[in-house]
Amino acid sequence: MSGHSKWHNIQRRKGRQDAIRGQLFTKLSKDIYHAAKEGGGNPDTNFRLKVAIERAKRENLPADSIARTIAKATGSLQGAHYEEVLYEGYGPGGVAILLDIVTDNRNRTAADIRHIFKKRGGNLGESGSVAWMFRRIGRITLKKDTLSLNVDELMLQALDAGADDLREDEDEWEIVTSPENFTSVRDHLEKQGLPLEDAEYTYEAVTPMEVDPSLTEEVLDLLESLEAHDDVQSVYTNAEL
What we know:
This protein is α+β, with helices and mostly antiparallel strands. It contains nine helices and ten strands. It has a domain at 8-74: Integrase, N-terminal zinc-binding domain (Arc Repressor Mutant, subunit A).
């Protein structure tokens, strides 16, 4: 695995847990906001919102905060306006980094992210500078211990629904789809009663890049520092660490 999956597996967020609880709540709230803004405020018909709410509840984000965020996103309550943008840059050794940003102030966020890159041996790039090194995919995950199907049965269900691949992680299965087939595959698996852990659009590197071992800590430091910023929702890289 590479790109998003590799970073998703090795990042140290389990140990750090975003360090500051308020920072984590900010990220969760922005995820809920954008999901509701994009697909409406009903989690029964907006799967992305449903997943965002479930994730927030697992982290003990208060129910009134969730409701208030949805109300702001759907216009029934006044609040900040957020937009989702992609930032691109390079890290130590030339590794490519793609950032999913949700911000209410592009200028402030750009200045912050540029400073993080510069301070840690990288640089913020222009639009299109590294995005071509990644591909957009749908990613659906299922915990192994919640499944009654064996791997052959799961593979058959996924491929029949239009998935591209089934990948194994330590404690979960990852179903990969094209962006076009993501919704139909997700809906099919749900109708089959499969317990989906998560389902999202994401990015993965087209061609992974091996990092010189001497630069590993520098690259990790940059990735973690970017991820720690309030406006950064997701970090993707082509670095093989």
